[in-house]
Specification:
The chain is mostly beta strands and 1309 residues long. 8% of the residues lie in helices and 42% in strands. The strands form 24 sheets. An eight-stranded parallel β-sheet has the order 1-95-94-93-92-91-90-89. Strands 66, 75, 76, 77, 78, 79, 80 and 81 form an eight-stranded mixed β-sheet that branches. Helix 8 (1206-1222) packs parallel to helix 9 (1253-1260). The radius of gyration is 47 Å and the shape is extended. The relative contact order is 0.05.
């Protein structure tokens, strides 16, 4: 930019991605041309081939002056020098000689020629010479991979002489043909001579891979060299969105040029939409495509869900005066996409159809068929209304009047045509086929002897209406008598809408609908009706009657139901205890029996507990699912503490009989707690309270201590220890067995090598092995195996409960003993988690410490039995043949595992103690089996490696993983052996049973890039505490490791004043126990840019498609979000092809997604400014008639001069901008009144032109512009900076830089 602008102004640089394509060319270079002395001599040179033709490949001419060693002047041009060529302005009085070069090789030179002083008038001589180039031959070279057929691309080709001088070099193209820097495939060489030669070498990635010697150039050579480089192979990555899958013939090891057939397979209720990725041209929307491999490729199949479309078929009248539109047609036949279905009695039928246009045909007996199309959207449902016209029909109106001539409504009577009953509408109208009919009318009660039929003959004309009038005998009347008891309530009768405590007697015409309701008085309740009661309505307070005979009714009221209750038993472990005390952890059964003193009705109870003696019920977890029970038992819309027992289906209690209700509960804390029962009955359609019992008090005792005798086989010693009890004695061995112990003797313990699916997991010992699940920090369920080794303690692997890579505990554990596929008899939550000693990824030997003990929420050994755990000398035979491994492989296997989650058992062979995977010193047992390649897969970790010792199952090791791969046998199973040290430590972990205080899991979400001064939200709401609650959040915002802010809310709104590439923000999450964890995010803070967003995209011809194609619009918004785009320039010319409503819907969608929308006005040529001036009012008029969400936010001008002169164009442009500020309006609407941002595209080359640098400067400084867009269009940063500087240097106008990129639209919006 010219230096007329004042210096020292603020500079801003904001990067915006635009898609622009351009072609650059490079001028020929003039190299080392020295300034000549004064003189006017000339030396003209021509170069000829041996055959006399002009040499057209001369790329250098050098002229030498006698007496000088350096060239006097030289000309170089790799595109070739036009001949003849004249060296002019040569000083006279010297001798000169010219050398010519072809492809950088000396082709020949002239003799010395003197240029003398000219004649009388001065000047110099003109001399000339012709050089005959020495004869040379061309060589072409083509390189192949070692298959001698696949071309080798990007290899270096060098031709050296026998003296080792490099004469020629080139790079092979995609066909393996070596080419010069200028693109020629011919390399010219002079004959090597009798003893000379050339060597042609091919190098690939720095290594010589082929060579050949040339001893003569008698004829042109076409060399084909096979190299030692194998052909490339490529991989094909295929994926799919939800709703389908992809089937590819091959995905890896695919050779160059091979084709792969790929098929997109949609799931039911889904349809294939398109491919993304490296899609062959023209096949984006084909389900089956073929890809030719020439590089690694990725493909993703996109599926969209079919939309539920409901067709409603109705009658449509074309007869004047007859309005039958809307009456539904049953059994109408609808055919869509070859599928035929029939409407129901409401005229409806549903299809699931792919988004897009569909043709449908609807037919029905007696109606004209209809064929039409409907456009099915991508989301939401679609209702399609279809109206069918009766074919060849006319209208019939039946008027019925009484003896006085008053209309009484034909639809109250039975009307038939030729014996077929007609369905008249409210106006007494029907549609009939043209013809003559016998029309009969009779009252609906045809059983009376006093009634007669009335008949008339009527002719129906097609397309016309006919009216026929009848006067029937009047319908009879009937009485309704209600006998109301002296006390207990009243009745209401409608019509006439009266309520009375006395008897009611009314008379009604036949067919009158009457509602009679029994209203019980306070302290009473309605029991039943007596008299002429409709079927199944005797106990309904409200009766709906259609009067067709005399009726007598009598309501029966009784006093409100009385329900008495008493606590009849409280049991612990199924045995009645009289002392009223239980122990923490003991399962207690509390019960109540209710007697029904009223009529037969449903009865239920709500058990409530008071555990802090405040007389108010607290919500507690009695089911063991981790959730405290609550229920809305008083129908007030809010839930209260309580557990419901009983219901309508099973607890309907006759009068005077009783019903018992029971609840099992294991108290978790000591103290006096109370239980009471809220009694509820259901006399009609809702539950009501029948009173609340008094509190029943129980005393909860802390667990005591018990003496445990333990034998240590390693030291052969026995000792007694005092340990806390949790409600039952410990079971270090398997003395506590389940009720069904048939497993061991049932053939379920095969000893031969093999894999066995456990078919009797409901039998011991399999009941003591279970599946262990937990949720990791990514909310993914982890699955392992565990073994019950004590009443409420299980043994598993530490890596099943602790994430090594993230150093975090899992949470929400469940233990499911005896699970086998869909059979899941138990499921227990975990209270405490303990990993073995210092098992962490930062600790020493984590492999040998891969053990954890978990404490269940309650004892279960009496239901499942336990395994003993034990330790023996490494030399003991217990570690040899006969070992077994039990667990739950997570992955299915066609040959073995048929149901995910099934229990499997493998017999292990032999033993070996090895130092592998940080497991040293005989800490790990390496077992093997022929079947290990198929069996121990993810999910088996933590499972028991065990054997029978004295007939009882003993855990000797914990399964940690496998060493090897399925294709390489033998695979070995790594089992963490229970050493004497671990044996003692596991016992301590069982006895301790203390809760491990787990730290919280911290999470932080924030945008990657923000502007200086922009307010953003730091979000830590995904943080959680696996064993409690989060107390507060601490924030470090200044990269100083000082947490200067503290909040109770997990989110924080912040802004930054600095500009930085790597600004780190941190959150420290602190739980209620004081444990903490920190998470951080790195931000890029860019300069603030007022008035516009900082990442944008141009949309030209595609704008109308975004407005009319919902799928294209969604893809655009998804990719815009992915690329962090927040501004879009939409072509007005393209949007003019759509309706204002479609245009408005697009702007509303963009506005909802947070994008700023600027209308793009971009004509070019001599009329560019004129056309722009005409377009702006159209935009203002559109905005004026739309609400804010459907308006443009700004106007972007992208006018180009085209072939027109630049200077007048810029002058006209400047005038336009002045008018934008003051002179362009429509109906009083202006750019200023609509608060539109105005921007203009400025091409970098305008400022470089000799025509208009100052005009360009003036345009950039226009006060009408909020910012400019510098069209720097290049993909090299240095070039972009240079071009941007030429426009923006020394200006304070905000600007955006447009660069060349294929990043956003390389696959189309």
């Amino acid at each position: 930019m010219s230096g007329i602008l004042s210096g020292g102004k603020m500079r801003r640089f904001v990067s915006v991605a635009f898609v622009v394509l351009m072609v650059l060319s490079q001028p020929a270079a003039v190299v080392s041309v020295d300034a000549a002395e004064n003189g006017d001599g000339e030396f003209t040179i021509d170069v000829e081939e041996p055959n006399g033709t002009t040499a057209d490949e001369v790329n250098a001419l050098i002229i030498y002056q006698a007496g000088q060693s350096d060239p006097y002047r030289k000309i170089e041009d790799y595109d070739g020098i036009d001949l003849e060529y004249t060296f002019s302005n040569l000083p006279t009085g010297h001798e000169y000689r010219v050398s010519a070069y072809i492809q950088d090789q000396l082709a020949g030179q002239t003799d010395w020629k003197e240029i003398s002083q000219g004649g009388f008038f001065g000047g110099g001589d003109s001399v000339s010479a012709t050089i005959t180039a020495e004869s040379r031959e061309s060589v072409t070279v083509q390189a192949f991979h070692d298959d001698d057929s696949t071309p080798l691309e990007d290899a270096e080709m060098i031709i050296e002489s026998h003296e080792g001088i490099e004469w020629r070099s080139g790079i092979t193209d995609e066909d393996g043909i070596a080419r010069t820097q200028q693109g020629s495939d011919e390399f010219y060489l002079y004959p090597p001579g009798d003893e000379g030669s050339y060597t042609v070498e091919i190098s690939h990635e720095g290594d010589v891979v082929a060579s050949q010697e040339l001893f003569s150039l008698d004829n042109p050579k076409d060399l084909e060299l096979e190299t030692s480089v194998p052909p490339p192979t490529y991989s094909l990555s295929v994926s799919s969105t939800e709703g389908g899958d992809v089937d590819a013939e091959q995905t890896s090891g695919i050779e160059e040029g091979e084709t792969v057939d790929i098929e997109a397979e949609a799931d039911p209720n889904y349809v294939f939409d398109h491919w993304d990725g490296d899609v062959p041209s023209g096949e984006r929307e084909d389900e089956d495509i073929t890809v030719t491999m020439d590089e690694d490729k990725e493909l993703e199949a996109n599926f969209i869900e079919k939309t539920e479309v409901t067709f409603t078929v109705s009658k449509e009248s074309t007869i004047p005066g007859y309005g039958f539109s809307g009456e539904r047609i049953e059994d109408a036949e609808i055919t869509v996409d070859g599928v035929t279905r029939f409407t129901d009695d409401d005229g409806k039928e549903q299809f699931r159809l792919a988004p897009g246009e569909h043709e449908y045909t609807v037919t029905a007996d007696g109606f004209e068929p209809l064929t039409d199309t409907t456009n099915v959207p991508e989301t939401g449902g679609l209702s399609v209304g279809v109206g069918l016209v009766r074919d060849g029909a006319g209208g019939l109106t039946v008027d019925v009047v009484d003896r006085d001539g008053n209309g009484v409504g034909a639809n109250k009577y039975q009307v038939s045509a030729d014996g077929d009953q007609l369905d008249l509408n409210a106006e007494g109208e029907a549609i009939l086929d043209a013809g003559t009919y016998d029309i009969k009318v009779k009252p609906t009660n045809s059983g009376s002897d006093e009634l007669t039929e009335v008949s008339k003959t009527v002719t129906i004309e097609e397309g016309e209406g006919t009216t026929v009038e009848f006067t029937p005998i009047e319908a009879p009347t009937y009485s309704l008598d209600v006998d109301v008891p002296a006390e207990g309530g009243s009745v209401s009768v409608d019509p006439p809408g009266v309520t009375s405590e006395d008897d009611v007697s009314k008379t009604y015409e036949e067919g009158t609908e009457v509602t009679v309701t029994a209203e019980p008085a306070e302290g009473y309740e309605f029991e039943r009706w007596e008299g002429d009661v409709p079927a199944n309505s005797r106990h309904s307070r409200k009766l709906d009657l259609e009067i067709d005979t005399d009726h007598f009714l009598h309501p029966v009221f009784t006093r409100e139901t009385r329900v008495s209750t008493s606590v009849v038993k409280r049991t612990v472990r199924e045995a009645v205890e009289q002392d009223g005390t239980i122990t923490v952890g003991e399962e207690t059964e509390v019960g109540v029996t209710l007697r029904n003193d009223g009529p037969k009705m449903p009865i239920r109870t709500v058990f409530q507990f008071d555990i802090d003696s405040d007389g108010q019920p607290e919500a507690i977890d009695t089911s063991g699912d981790g959730e405290a029970e609550r229920v809305d038992y008083d129908s007030d819309g809010s839930v209260e503490a309580g557990i419901v027992r009983g219901g309508v289906d099973s607890t309907v209690v006759p009068t005077g009989e009783t019903q018992a209700f029971g609840l099992r509960y294991a108290p978790g804390s000591a103290g006096d707690w109370q239980m009471r029962v809220v009694k509820q009955v259901k006399p009609e359609d809702e539950w009501v309270s029948a009173g609340t019992s008094a509190w029943k008090t129980f005393t909860i005792k802390q667990p005591g201590t018990v003496a445990i005798v333990r034998h240590d086989p390693q030291k052969d010693t026995t000792k007694t220890v005092q340990v806390e009890r949790t409600g039952r004695d410990f079971a270090f061995d398997s003395a506590s067995t389940p009720m069904d112990t048939g497993g061991v003797g049932s053939g379920e313990l095969p000893s031969t090598d093999g894999i066995y699916n456990v078919t009797k997991s409901n039998k011991y010992p399999w009941t003591a092995v279970g599946r262990l699940t937990g949720i990791n920090s990514s909310d993914v369920t982890s699955r392992c195996t565990a073994t019950l080794i004590e009443d409420n303690h299980i043994l598993t692997a530490a890596h099943c409960v602790y994430e090594d890579d993230r150093e975090k505990f899992l949470h929400n554990f469940r233990f499911k003993p005896a699970q086998n596929g869909n059979y899941e008899p138990y499921s227990y939550p975990i209270e405490y988690v303990q990993v073995y000693k210092s098992y962490t990824p930062k600790g020493t030997d984590p492999g040998r410490r891969d053990i954890a003990v978990l404490t269940l929420s309650r004892p279960i050994a009496e239901e499942t039995g336990t395994f003993a755990f034990d330790s023996f000398s490494p030399s003991n035979d217990v570690y040899g043949t006969g070992l077994r491994l039990t667990g739950y492989p997570s992955r299915t296997d066609a040959d073995y595992v048929e149901v995910a989650g099934s229990m499997w058992h493998i017999c292990l062979n032999g033993k070996e103690f090895a130092n592998v995977a940080n497991c040293t010193g005989q800490e790990c047992l390496m077992a093997d089996s022929t079947y290990l390649g198929e069996y121990p897969k993810g999910g088996t970790s933590g499972g028991p490696t065990w054997r029978l010792v004295d007939g009882e199952p003993h855990v000797l090791a914990v399964h940690s993983g496998t060493i090897g791969a399925p294709e390489r046998f033998p695979i070995q199973s790594m089992e963490v052996r229970i050493t004497p040290e671990k044996y003692a430590d596991i016992g301590n972990m069982v006895r301790r049973g203390n809760k491990v205080d787990l730290p919280p899991n911290a999470s932080l979400d924030a945008p990657d890039k923000v502007s200086r001064g922009q307010t953003i939200e730091l979000d830590a709401s995904e943080s959680f505490d696996p064993d409690g609650n989060i107390d507060h959040y601490e924030w470090d915002l200044n990269i100083d490791s000082e947490f200067e802010k503290q909040t109770n809310d997990p989110s924080l709104s912040v802004s930054f004043d600095e500009i930085a590439d790597n600004w780190i923000v941190k959150v420290r999450v602190v739980d209620e126990d004081g444990r903490e964890e920190t998470e951080s995010r790195t931000l890029t803070i860019t300069p603030d840019t007022p008035g516009f967003q900082n990442r944008a995209v141009y949309v030209w011809d595609y704008a109308d498609n975004l407005a009319t194609n919902t799928a294209a619009q969604k893809r655009f918004l998804r990719r815009a979000e992915k690329q962090n785009l927040n501004t879009v320039f939409l072509s007005w010319g393209s949007l003019s092809n759509v309706s204002p409503e479609e245009r408005a819907a697009l702007l509303r969608a963009l506005n909802d997604s947070g994008m700023k929308t600027n209308v793009l006005i971009g004509p070019n040529g001599s009329n560019a400014i004129k056309n722009t001036r005409k377009t702006i009012p159209e935009v203002l008029s559109y905005n004026a008639n739309r609400p804010g969400a459907e308006q443009f936010d700004g106007i972007h001008l992208d006018a180009e001069p085209g072939e027109a002169d630049l200077k007048p164009f810029l002058s006209e442009y400047q005038t336009l901008l002045s008018d934008v500020e003051t002179g362009i309006s429509v109906d009083g609407e202006t750019v200023q009144s609509q608060d539109l941002a105005v921007s203009a595209a400025i091409s970098w080359w305008w400022d470089q032109s000799d025509e208009a640098p100052q005009a360009t400067d003036k345009l950039v400084e226009s006060t009408a512009l909020d910012y400019v867009v510098v069209m720097a269009y290049y993909d090299e940063p240095s070039v972009v900076r240079q071009r941007t500087k030429s426009i923006t240097d020394e200006t304070d106008t905000p600007y955006v830089v447009a660069v060349e990129t294929q990043e956003f639209l390389r696959r189309g919006p």
